[in-house]
């Protein structure tokens, strides 16, 4: 397996406030990696720094052999990274269809509209309603669907299950397994431990801006004590 | 003679027509301001100067190069739009991270510089610009005589306003613009070159002002200060309509032009201030403007 995304010694700041203190992380092609960690430890900041939304950074971020850190924000998507933000970012002045078609296709191999609508049947029925008339679950699905259309090779997914009902969480889990079957690489930030254990291949634990542990899903049970302690679950 | 509200219908319709013509310019100019403000969050004080530049491009193209009105109508927005793009790229874009007041101050300074420069070269007095032969003369509508050029101004302004509205509300590029208005960072993270989009938007706004300038040249003459006279009223229109609403800017432009015309009929003394009175009332009752969303 080859490394698709490599993060080494990543530091990041919001203005003067130093949030990431040397993050190291490798993600292999086709893998689903989950970042666990308590609130405010820097999980979102890690994804935003990889994507280039947080600009004040030092260290190394390479994706598919390209130096992502040096790119302007509108180039990272073209390199094959797709970001689904925690707050979902559905545009209120755009219809569902317009939201879906907004991100430009960056590479061949993205899903067709038919594939997207069969994966997210709810979206088809609501094509013409304004984006923000959707339920929380539908907004999450739309936020994922619009990136899947683009042909991105790696999905940065920030807390997709936050605030959603169990049946919707199951649906999102099914989507992630489908993506894995298609060879998609996923970096998932999750607080929902049970959900993560069903979809992730490998875990990182984040604490105060650094990765403190890294282990494959098979070691999950053996790590329970450490996880209870660091995550407070 | 037919009377309406105790006023000869000729005079009444004549003032409505003048109101509609003024309204055509208000609509075009406030539309450009709204387009720029929506995406760049810059109150473009140079808008009047860009309108004036549009008129000068038409005048100089004719005098120096023999380029006629119809070509000027295309050339002026291209030249002024390109100039706007250059200004945005090299100067205005450096101010986005700062307080919005800096963008306002910068464009205000730009307006003074442009107007001063033009005055130095061409003097302050107005220069006539003849309407194209095809649009001279008048038609008798029965209840009034309509100068053809004035009818053309209303028609052209309507077409341009509706085209821009359709571009923003109905096309994919427009959807991208609307999304970038809501959340530019996220849109850029999708791989869209938002800085370029901002440049093009500023150029579009400046180009709209230039079209208005060319349309105005045969009516108001061409002078370096023609923009600073009209832009104050246009800012009042934008305040009444609500900053950033595209349809609001267009509709309010025509409405206030007509309101001004009607005031000339019934209470001529107030016609110069009626728009500002309306602005004050709107600010008291609905601070976000008639079409603006309450924050
Ligand atoms: N825009 C911002 N400006 C300043 N500080 C910020 C900003 N966003 C986040 N922070 C701070 O950076 C730290 C890391 O935040 P981040 O959002 O990355 O945490 P997180 O692990 O994603 O938390 P959560 O689980 O609550 O989403 C926190 O201390 C937070 O207060
Ligand atoms: Mg977070």
UniProtKB/TrEMBL annotation, chain A:
<keyword id="KW-0813">Transport</keyword>
<dbReference type="GO" id="GO:0015807">
    <property type="term" value="P:L-amino acid transport"/>
</dbReference>
<comment type="similarity">
    <text>Belongs to the ABC transporter superfamily.</text>
</comment>
<keyword id="KW-0547">Nucleotide-binding</keyword>
<dbReference type="GO" id="GO:0016887">
    <property type="term" value="F:ATP hydrolysis activity"/>
</dbReference>
<dbReference type="InterPro" id="IPR003593">
    <property type="entry name" value="AAA+_ATPase"/>
</dbReference>
<dbReference type="InterPro" id="IPR003439">
    <property type="entry name" value="ABC_transporter-like_ATP-bd"/>
</dbReference>
<keyword id="KW-0067">ATP-binding</keyword>
<keyword id="KW-0029">Amino-acid transport</keyword>
<dbReference type="InterPro" id="IPR052156">
    <property type="entry name" value="BCAA_Transport_ATP-bd_LivF"/>
</dbReference>
<dbReference type="InterPro" id="IPR027417">
    <property type="entry name" value="P-loop_NTPase"/>
</dbReference>
<protein>
    <submittedName>
        <fullName>ABC transporter ATP-binding protein</fullName>
    </submittedName>
</protein>
<dbReference type="InterPro" id="IPR017871">
    <property type="entry name" value="ABC_transporter-like_CS"/>
</dbReference>
<dbReference type="GO" id="GO:0005524">
    <property type="term" value="F:ATP binding"/>
</dbReference>
<feature type="domain" description="ABC transporter">
    <location>
        <begin position="5"/>
        <end position="233"/>
    </location>
</feature>
<dbReference type="GO" id="GO:0015658">
    <property type="term" value="F:branched-chain amino acid transmembrane transporter activity"/>
</dbReference>
<dbReference type="Pfam" id="PF00005">
    <property type="entry name" value="ABC_tran"/>
</dbReference>
TrEMBL record, chain B:
<keyword id="KW-1133">Transmembrane helix</keyword>
<dbReference type="GO" id="GO:0006865">
    <property type="term" value="P:amino acid transport"/>
</dbReference>
<comment type="similarity">
    <text>Belongs to the binding-protein-dependent transport system permease family. LivHM subfamily.</text>
</comment>
<keyword id="KW-1003">Cell membrane</keyword>
<feature type="transmembrane region" description="Helical">
    <location>
        <begin position="232"/>
        <end position="259"/>
    </location>
</feature>
<feature type="transmembrane region" description="Helical">
    <location>
        <begin position="265"/>
        <end position="285"/>
    </location>
</feature>
<feature type="transmembrane region" description="Helical">
    <location>
        <begin position="67"/>
        <end position="88"/>
    </location>
</feature>
<keyword id="KW-0812">Transmembrane</keyword>
<feature type="transmembrane region" description="Helical">
    <location>
        <begin position="100"/>
        <end position="122"/>
    </location>
</feature>
<dbReference type="GO" id="GO:0022857">
    <property type="term" value="F:transmembrane transporter activity"/>
</dbReference>
<dbReference type="Pfam" id="PF02653">
    <property type="entry name" value="BPD_transp_2"/>
</dbReference>
<feature type="transmembrane region" description="Helical">
    <location>
        <begin position="196"/>
        <end position="220"/>
    </location>
</feature>
<dbReference type="InterPro" id="IPR001851">
    <property type="entry name" value="ABC_transp_permease"/>
</dbReference>
<dbReference type="GO" id="GO:0005886">
    <property type="term" value="C:plasma membrane"/>
</dbReference>
<keyword id="KW-0029">Amino-acid transport</keyword>
<feature type="transmembrane region" description="Helical">
    <location>
        <begin position="12"/>
        <end position="35"/>
    </location>
</feature>
<keyword id="KW-0813">Transport</keyword>
<keyword id="KW-0472">Membrane</keyword>
<dbReference type="InterPro" id="IPR052157">
    <property type="entry name" value="BCAA_transport_permease"/>
</dbReference>
<protein>
    <submittedName>
        <fullName>Branched-chain amino acid ABC transporter permease</fullName>
    </submittedName>
</protein>
<feature type="transmembrane region" description="Helical">
    <location>
        <begin position="42"/>
        <end position="61"/>
    </location>
</feature>
<feature type="transmembrane region" description="Helical">
    <location>
        <begin position="151"/>
        <end position="168"/>
    </location>
</feature>
